[in-house]
Records
---
Amino acid sequence: MVLGRGPEGAATLTRQPPRSALLLVRRISDYMADLFERVRASLAGRYTIERELGRGGMATVYLARDLKHDRPVALKVLRPELAAVLGAERFLREIRLTAQLQHPHILTLLDSGDAGGFLYYVMPFVEGESLRQRLERERQLPLDEALRLTRAIASALDFAHGRGVVHRDIKPENIMLHQGEPMVADFGIALAVSTAGRERLTETGLSPGTPAYMSPEQASAEPRLDGRSDQYSLACVLYEMLAGEPPYTGPTAQAVLAKRLTEPIPHLGTLRGVPPAVEAAVTKALAKAPPDRFATAHAFVLALTAGSTRGTHPRWRSASAALAVVIVIGGAVAWFRASRGSKGGHNLSNVAPFTSSPGAKFGPVFSPDGNEIAYAWKGENEDNFDIYIKLIGAGGPLRLTSNAAGEYCPAWSPDGRNIAFFRKWPWSDRGAYYIIPALGGTERKIAEQYGQDVVFGRCIDWSRDGKSLIVADKMAPEDSRSSILLLSIEDGQRTALVSQPDLYIANPILSPDGTGVAYIQGAGFLAGDIYVVPVSGGRPRRVTSDGRTLNGIAWTADGREIVFASNRGGLWRLWRVPASGGTPEPVSGAGDGAAAPAIAPRGNRLAYVQARVDANLWQAAGPGWKGRRPAPLKLIASSRWDFEGAFSPDGQRIAFGSDRSGSVEIWTCNGDGTNQTQLTSLKAADAGTPRWSPDGKTIAFDARLEGHGDIFTISAEGGTPHRLTSDPVENNVPAWSRDGKWIYFSSNRTGNWQIWKVPSAGGSAIQVTTDGGFSAQESPDGKSLYVWRDGGTIWRARPSGEETTRVLQGVPVFAWWRVFPGGIYFVDGSTAPAQVRFLDFATERVNTITTLDLGYSVTGPWGFDVSPDGKWILYKRVDQVESDIMLVEDFR
């Protein structure tokens, strides 16, 4: 008798096989040994095949060494019969697309090829175990752990689904655990298999998927599968993590599939006590028909945690609803000021304040007859933003909304009867679109918001027939594409006019004749252009071509021009450009800080926001302070914007950014704030992020001389800046290596944000990371590189970018952390006041050091540093925020 495994992996006791079976086993063993040697010979020179790791229905996986990069890898060789069906050309073409799946919880494709008739692909070798191995050891996982793993896996699946890739074989064997973090493997075969077609695979006797985790539609050989099939499989995996077995089991694969198609959905609660929300979510995700499941894996995860009081740190603090606007505008409405009396261009006359009450106001929009303006205002109590309307020339404002959340972006319907708006909850990651009668009344929710928050300018408009809202959003929560959408007010149905992957899209505005939508598109908020897309469909047409910071756009009443706000001249002002394209010209007379323009459909009126923001650099006692802590001190101040302070290596000097000279430049001063001196004079270049070299003689910074970010260095004593990058892409956030030979920076030159480095003396840039990153800092000993990724996590890697490990989460801003010997100081903006915390490398514990009052904002433009001796913390505080709506009569 021997111990073996049944179809579901259960141990079974069987009799010794007859001699014929032993001969068959021996032949198979000889064949696999011969295959091993043939694969080894075919790949000699590129990979050294060390040993077989395992075999699956589609491929054999080997532990190999990548000779070029001297690293262990997992090399998968497709079974010969599968390779014959797919064909080398088809397989290699399709699998290349999976190289785009760069996600923290997806095993990345490193290489693929055809060698000696073998089709193979290569993934990182994960040191750890599979989820299957852990379940064999523990059988059931704690609820919190199972939900944590599910959330991470779901994020990977939604990421892939947004790029049109369905995995088709989610199971514990394909989920690797690296230092506790799940990594989804084998996306490599999914695309090629789906392209080849199931009929051709059937000829080989092979079939993607595993019976215990296969969705009913996949088991029924449905030709087209979507992300809901993977969602079903993920629900099966979660079920097993909690119950100790998959939802359907049986002695054979056929028995399992028969149960799945005919028996009722099993209830998790009969096997283990779980919260009602978890059982309900799992049951829904296991629905036999895809339409009865959740729309996305992300929605499944949200339902799993419904009613839970725990969650991620809120991104905004309740005490400052203004932060959503004022600081999103952080670089926008009033970061910089517009110039007065510019030469040339168009001049405004009859400019007068439309509002003069205290507090911030944003997003003005005219009624269809041009006699009223709707806008967002914090109100006299300055508690949170609500929607108000005010008649031009008489009376006070009428308040339309009174929700505890913030409301922004009002938009009048074409008939003037309703106003659409956007609502954002302070503790939520998303908002929603609503409409309300223009005279007040019951509001109605139209749809959830999935994209980035853009609450300045105009983020909502109406279609000409009044049946749809026009918004900049996403088709689904985890869709990587930003889109201009028509949002049906009847049922919330989304129709995309234009979709672009990994781009910033904002401020959609319908043309006066209703045929086109103007909008802003670019690599990010700081690098946008104006486009127009036909409502009837078609390719967008580019109006501007210099990639500048834009804040709000508006059509002139005749549709011939577009007016917009930009700091392309160094300061914020209004500009106008022919709608057909051309050279923008300034609109003079708008005053300081002009932004978010709106033009009346009738009456020759223009409205815009004029903002006044005073931001300064403050100093507070740090962790190294001994004795009684002094009160925080305003160290570097002006009536303008001072931000991004950085201590020199000896702590005796400070570099910072400021627009006090009329353009955003790099300045320096003594450590006590005296001797403030302008270092750069780049004009119109938005210089920022100053970083001292290890010897304190040079300062690196980023600036936008040609409409995109580049890295520069300059002597700390002044002089001519030295440009290190010149590619027509974004290059931002410099950081020195500890030996001073390299400068790390973030760049989107590969299509997504990664960390690169360039010699500080000049030379070619080298890519460091492949799995994402937006800011980086070397450890004091130079042996590790710490990388901040979107989502607020910090990862440790080698300086070469390899062997990444997550060390910290809950850091909401890329500039709010500093690496010191022994740990990381960072700002947690989820509380009021914000907290400075410290991650101790030795104990892996996080302790609170002190609190900071950041004023009106908890996000950028940023400022946080700790002096080398730990005695002082330098941070940016917004001390005053005021904005009013200005009205221009007889605008031409």
---
Amino acid sequence: MRHVKVDLTTATHVGRVIQGVRQKVSTGSPASIGERVGSRVDGARMFLAASKARLWSPDPKSSLDTWADEQGEAAYLDLEERYARHPNALLRGDMADLLNHSLKIWPPKRFPTLYQPIPPDLRNPIHWDGKVLGGQEVPTTARRHLSPEVYSAAVSAASKNARILTKWIRTVLLVPGVGLALLYAATVFSAGVGFPKWAAAAGFYGPVFGWYLSLIIDTAVLGGLAAGLALLASRLAFRPFVLFGTNRILERFFDRVQAPLLLPCRDSKLVYAQKETQRDEEYLAYTRQVRAANDERRPLTRVLLPVARARGTLRSRGIMQAPVRDAQMCLDGESIRQHVLILGGTGSGKTRLVIRPLSSRIMTADWGSDRRIGAYITDGKGTLWKDLLFVPGVADRTDIRVVGAGFYDVRRPDGSVARVATYGCNLVQGMEPSEIGDMFEAIYSQLGGRSDKETFWVRNAAVAMQHGASIAKFVANCEDESLRDYFEDDLKTSPYTLLGIAQIVYDCNGPDSLLNRCVDFALAKSRMNPETVPAGLNDALDWVKNSWMVMAVETRSSVLANIGTVIQKLTGSPKLAKAFCQYTLQPNDVVDVDHALNGGILMIAVGEDEFGIAGKIITCCLKTRLYIKAKRRLQVEGREAREQVSVAMIADEFQLLATTGAESDETFWNTARETGVFAVVATQSIAALNARIGESATNNLMDLFRSKIVLATEEKLTQEYCQRLAGNVLLGWKTEDKFFETIHEREKLYPDVGYDRIETSSLDGLVPTKLALQIKFVADIIPQDNRFVDQYSTGEKGQDVNARVNAMKEAWNRFVDRNQSQLTNGLKEVPALHAAELNRGSGIGFVYLQRAGGVRLDVVDFEGV
């Protein structure tokens, strides 16, 4: 068997048919209409529709090879010319008729995705549940591999083979013919037939010479006739040899490319009929997803953010929302606003494999000329900002502000060290007293428990901070500076700061206490100018008089103890207190979270690693302040603000930041999309969130963070949650090595990618062969066994015909029973995602991504992007 290498780079395209149909169907560039049209019509139409064929060979060509190539190209051109005016539209290759033929088989209303451009990351095969869209069997797609290159290569190989065969025919006919002529001459010569002896005896040499000349001429004529007949026979045999050889080569090639498609799969034989309604809904959702991705009114669906590369695992198990192997898994600019949650155990690579590359893609994406993207980067440890400071898209920004206390040395990618200055922030500046109370309650949810008893004390502490803030705000804004100077000179803080408010609430014993001095000051000023009394001040004064001061000492002490849980941690860290709680920094050394909301990059360099619990308090306060500011922007500027500036809140170790209560993660992310803030947050596991904020709040967050990216994790709750997202599939036992659950499982071992060689045999062309290119039936799981039938033969004396019939019945029944048993053997619904697949590590994980209004999910390779 000889092999001819063929360039099949266009084997899955259909040349001018694709281009013509694309022009007629869409002004865009449809992704796969060529395959859809070309895989259902006969091979001849595909030859006519494609471009000029070329044979490729890596070895230097002989003169015979060059001649054979020319024969192949000439044959294809002749075929085009011959059928150019054929009455059959498919053979003629008329574009309009080809399109009409396609429209009859796959109406656009029923199968719109066959006639639309499809983004590469959304492109699905035309097989659904084991069959081609419309219910055709998969082997019908095999003819698309019969490209012009294959046809020309087959003709070329057959021509070369025919040339060799005719050469041997000439030799075979010529040698016996010439041999017979020489044998004739030898016989005549030896027998002396007709030899003029009389002339020889008489010495007349003329007749003798004539006899010899006649013998030579007769021998030459006989030899020439033999050579002519040999040449004529070879000439006459050449075209049939080429025809039969081409047919045989194409049949062999077609059988080869069709062979993988004939292997039996459970989905086409059983599942397809069971999922009729579900399949219609899945395909309808897919068509709407493609339509959304192409919608000009939704430009953000074309802002693609690659996350990982699909392994094709879930599609091979029958999940149609999953992509094929090696497809990119992407978020888009619209779906990322529905928030992203990254899960993975310690050391699984959350930062390296997901947060860093995804952050870079967010910041470098083309969001449009009228949109800006800001970032708020934080984490529970206070170290994420160092990982993201020099990533592409961030490193070249001039609007980066690092919030912290002091200076930090950060190593650049080139090994040099950059010294980074930080900015402080007044945690309560610009906030309403009620918002300060809500912030305090949210912070405490990260520090304390969540029992009903503890919640009671925390809420009372939050109320105390709220009313203390109302009084502090009035003192800070009053024109009389006497009391304000006392704060700044003696207490080393401003009234309307976190420490100033806490000092007012704390110092409440005795008539000369700071609280009483502030209350007396506020009462005196409010009586002088009642119209200037701010909202909430009277409520605060009433609360001090009627609730706080008359409260039992033990009760008040418990409330103050809860306030002290937060405040004493801050006062124990002078650097943090100065930067965030006292408002003693210069204006140039201060930045607010508004910086991110205005399109800048704000990085939080405070966390537990350096500052312990105090660092966590500051980080949570800043995050809560961002939430409050974002909501306020929505109220003041409306939805137009989010269209102009979006903010990516990128957070690691989110379990150390998540809070509950008012103005917390429990409430903010319900409406965050309206504010223009979206989350890309990472945490170790669902159990870690449960331990911090409770099961109810965790479940709420899991629902709000629509896209999930999961790296290696052993945590059971996380694994079960991912399995629930992936859904269930029908799987059973298999005892046959060439029986598969789905065609996509079969594709992994026997891919439908055509064949890049033309196989030829020395005998190709000798045996008459008809070109049928017949589509075969999908093979049975277990072939019929007729071994016990063949022992009975009909028509012979003494044989029992009834016995043969009975044996045939038994063989048939056994054949049917065994195949049905294979289809249903151990069949049951099982999770599509195995728990072991969530613990492979080495960059392998699971994603469940929102994309253009739909979902894409699969086991993925994060290092393959």
---
Amino acid sequence: MTKYIVAILCLIALTAERTEAQAFIEQIHPGVVKRGVTTRIHLVGTELLTPVDIWTSLPTDLVHQVGMEADDQGNMFIDLEVSENAPLGLYGMRLATDDGLSNVHLFSIDDLETVLEEEYVSPKEHNNGKLELAQPIAYPATVAGAIKPTDVDYYSIEVTKGETLSFEVVGNRLGKALDPVVTILDEKGKFVVSRDNDVGLLFDLRFEHTFEKAGKYFLRLHDSRYVGSQHWSYSFRIGKFPIARVAIPSAVQPGASTKLGFPQVADSQAELLLPADCDRSTVFFDFKREGDDASTWLPISVNNNKNQLELEPNDKQESAVAVTLETNIHGSFKDDQDWDWYSLELQKGITVDLKVETRNIGSPADVELTIYDPKGDVVKRVDDVGFEDAITSFTSPEEGTYYFKLREVVQHGGEAFAYRLEINALKTAIKATSGIGRIAVPIGTWQPLPIDVDRSRVAGDLTVQLLGVPEGFRLESNVIPADVTKWVGRLYIDDGVSTGVYAMHVNVQQIIEGEVKAESYANTQPLVDRIPTGRGPHGEPFELREDQRRLPASLKDQIAVLVTPPIPFDFKVNTPDVLLARYQHVEFKFDVMFDEGFQQPVTFEARGGELEQDRLRAPRVIAAIPEVTQSVSDLTGTLTSGVGTNLLSHRVTLTGSTTIGDRVINLTRTFELKIDAAFKPSGMQDPVDITIGKETMLEVFANRIDPFIGEVKLTTGDANGITLPKEIVIPEGAPSVKIKAVVAEDAPAGAQNIALNGNATVDKYAEASNGYLKVTVVEPPAEDDAEKGKE
């Protein structure tokens, strides 16, 4: 066995979505750059011609631009300098323009020389769409090409007898819908071997082939469906490099040296040592053996659990491998019909979190996890959870030995069918997410910073920190109150901060007596493609494609910030909470402030939730907001609810836009919108006492939301021992009516909630809304002796 010591950088990077940026990158070509050199890349898209800088998910000392040039055809060219110390793998890039930040686009960093597909560069002079027109490639190299609709690309190589070469396509992992297929043909065009998807690479592929004969061979590359786009770039890697997709163990501890094995590469190990202060959740690991032309990069998770390797035989309960809490178990299903058993000693009442990873570590295994209690009874059985592998938790009902059985669902096996089982005691935890991955903030004002928090056993206020940015970035308040799960902070940029791009971490912490008890970086989910979803049978969009969901880790724990020059207007929302009755309209107020001498019109757009297009459904709430050409107080905007509006609460982003020369300026504020039925029938807020054997007049309220004033019809539900009108009408404009309640002599004492089922016509639409009449049935007061004597 040969051992290789490999160094890796642990990089703190920072992303999210969505500001009103004008620029959109459709394609980066080549989509691969070599580390240690400067590469000219071509950005294709819209509104790219007023560049300020680029932002990448790597620090600027590793990747930065050293030149930008635009032509009159709308093309942008960037000279990208990549340090020799830059880690290989997939990363994100945004273009900063005068208007803001573009969408994120993915690119890869490689250690192979890049060769451009000639047909892409000069389509009029070159065509590699036929076998006889194949473009010769001198390997090792990465071919940077593109797949247009119905496109087939042919390349040719010369090999020696018995030579083994590796092949890899990076295409789907660039955030595009490409599903590449590579076929090797001999010099006569006869089929040799073909390769489609490889697990862990989305729809991409990585394989090796040993050529039995020397000579010329052809490589055919196309989309499996023969579809494509002029924007679907790919990198076709050819040479000698490891085909490993799985590492065991697949997770490492910061500051601890870990030996990695690779099931798909015999007799190879590597050693990985991350800095003790590495706080990344995942890193790309460069794996290269002695004699290889290039490296392969694999994702390695980072956490503080100790690692434990599976020990065979453990295919029966009686031979279960003993494990402990706070442990990562690394194993594999080495052959078909393989079961793996583990045992864990627990005291009564211990809550355990269990998580299985396969897809994210490059394994084809589909794991089912079964938990058994000390008596041998099944506590829980779980397979996939949504798009993820098995995730569950349980609380031990008694002291004893608990067992975990893992099996491959279709009972396939092999060394590459690896898994990681994470076993942890339930802890206090915070999960923070942000709805934005990019934000442009003018000097001297602020933009909203939305953070959602999910607390697990975490009480009290949370503290928000901004990391990786200079002094002058500040929050108006950095406290998320204990009862708030959806928080909107105000990110201010003070005078003195330089314009340009920044990478910002948002860290949310629970701090008790000066000690951090739980923390989380705000995670984001930036979108790469203009159409990021798959398509249904009639063209309707549905869930995000996997290439949009499984993004490089460096993209998901940071927010790209562009600091822009000061702007000549501002505005503030005067109604932070807006209540809209379904099928009605509501007004909201805001102030607009212009600098002296500024006269450009400012337009406003409201977005979010019911104001958005949802798949094939048009927006159900429509905003009408006037254009402004001067300072104005209490400007009125209107929201109107249409057919099928959902009853819910959500955040609305209100963006004011104007232009100064060629520069588009966007400034955003937010408010909360609650959409409810136009009425909500009820009695008094507090229960009303009614006496056994007596009559009582009760008041029933319509609780209408302005501007609805229509008639409301009610029916009453069952009441125990209470006689009420079966039907009640609250006339148009009347806030309430009084009804008679008669309590029977044998009515039981106690509280009752009597249903009020309401119906009304709201702007010609039938609306239903229900509530309760709350009463407490009480015994009549006892008569004293004097009163009895009078009788």
